[in-house]
Amino acid sequence: MIRAFALTLCAALLLAFEPAVDGGHAAQAQSNNNDYTPLNSRIRRSTPLPTEPRNVWQSRPLTDVQRARSNSMIDQMARCIWSRSNEMGLDFLARTDFGFTDFSEIGIEQGDVAKIYPIETCLSRVAQNANNSVMLRFDAANMRRWYLQAAYFDRFDDGPTWIQPGLSVGERNLPISADRPEVIAALAFADCVVAQDPYGADFFFRTAPRSDEELEVIQSLVPAMSVCLPEGQELEIDRDAMRQWVGEGLWHISGNLVPADDISSESTD
Fold this sequence. Notes:
Elements: H1 63-70, H2 73-84, H3 86-95, H4 113-116, H5 119-130, H6 140-155, E1 167-169, H7 181-196, H8 198-206, H9 212-228, H10 239-254, E2 257-259, H11 260-268
Antiparallel strand pairs: 1-2
């Protein structure tokens, strides 16, 4: 049985992956001889991205999974706020990061958020499309999640065309969380998983939440997660958290690729 996941971030750079109560198999950190990298992952940043899908299901057309995802209220909300102003969305993403929890961190009072961003308009539209009341939690973290999802799919509508031979992951910029080790640890893990299996990570992000396809891809990503855990550590993570982390990794890596040789040169300076 494909196991369930529940989120736990243990400490600054200690990630743990514990067995779920359903008796499924847990992913454990796998031993290797690589030193820890500036991303605190278990792969060298100079390792180029793989250029071929690792699983046969990853060659399936994206149309079906993307159509199912597009019917969700979250996807509709994300596309709505993004379509109102791409420039505003990109500015928001540039000023925030995974640790964003309060609008005051970017100089906006909570009462002014709806005046600046099209939240109320888009909530009304999603409710009208669903012919029902909309139950979406609006907060700073979800705002970033919505913008990031819509921006990534708008930029890479046909799949992970950003994957190119010989390129590796560049440095991250954390505008509000550079001094928060728990955020750095989570993003290091996310970046490592995406770098290990970029095709699988992209396909997972495109699946509909709680779908059979989502579970299938999570299972296929377990080896990548195991490689990315510090040796002797474990991590318990739920599907919603996994989707958010993978999204952060995809958004960063797809826009911050550099020749692997450049990173190797930096590490020896």
